[in-house]
Design brief:
The protein has about 230 residues and is mainly α. It is built from 7 helices and 3 strands, in the order αββαααααβα. The chain has a 3-stranded mixed beta sheet with strand order 1-2-3, with no helix packed on it. α1 runs antiparallel to α7. The chain is elongated and about 55 Å long. The two termini are about 20 Å apart.
């Protein structure tokens, strides 16, 4: 199964069964399938797959126009996204939103590094020689910084505020206690809860698969190898 298929299937699952991990809240009462443990396990595989495919594609594009250390930069970005999963799991198990703020900070640092590289690559001779390379660089030079700005101004502050307010239980749970606790979920369908969560969920579950499918299509047409 390709990275695109994994990510798209998991996004479909999570969009129909939304939940808020640290708070142990979910929209439906469907037993263990709706719990943070199951959802986060699937999300971990999906997000690592997304980061892998995106960084491999980025390396091919910028490498094709001669940007030095493209594979090293791509590997660094992928490592940051993968390590973010450990921080996320810490937040899920302890119910402490501070770790989710740290997680999403890494998700901001990674595209920032890639955006700087893409901007540098776009100034090089031959950057716009191939149409798919051109589209990718032009889009990412705008979308990359925009995504970083969104995380810095909305997503990370949201989790910091939750942490300060003690939402989710703070540091009350140990990792072992949290593992057992993550197999539970309480139904909450309030507008207050989902009104705050829907902006990032909508963008994630809609645009994420579109990005993956587009990159998979373009990947076969990229000129140049890592």
């Amino acid at each position: 199964m390709t990275c695109t298929a994994i990510f798209t299937i998991v996004c479909a699952f999570r969009s129909f069964l939304p939940r808020v991990d640290a708070e142990r809240l979910c929209f439906w009462d469907l037993g263990i399938i709706q719990t943070p443990f199951v959802g986060r396990s699937l999300a971990t595989v999906a997000e690592i797959s997304f980061a892998y495919q995106f960084t491999r594609y980025w390396a091919r594009v910028v490498g094709a126009v001669g940007l030095p250390f493209s594979l090293i930069i791509a590997n660094l970005a992928w490592f940051l996204c993968s390590f973010a999963q450990a921080l996320c799991w810490t937040g899920v198990l302890t119910t402490n939103n501070f770790w989710h703020a740290c997680e999403n900070s890494l998700w901001g640092i990674s595209p920032f590094i890639l955006a700087v590289g893409a901007i540098e690559a776009s100034t090089r001779k031959g950057a716009f020689k191939h149409e798919k390379n051109k589209k990718f660089l032009q889009i990412f030079c705008v979308a990359g910084p925009a995504f970083v700005a969104y995380l810095a101004t909305y997503d990370v502050p949201m989790y910091i505020q939750k942490w300060r307010d003690g939402v989710g239980g703070g540091v009350d749970l140990t990792l072992s206690e949290g593992l057992k606790h993550s197999l539970t979920c309480n139904v909450d369908r309030s507008d207050e809860l989902w009104g705050q969560e829907m902006p990032w969920m909508s963008g994630y579950f809609v645009f994420g698969p579109i990005i993956m499918m587009t990159l998979e299509e373009w990947d076969t047409k990229i000129i140049g190898k890592i």
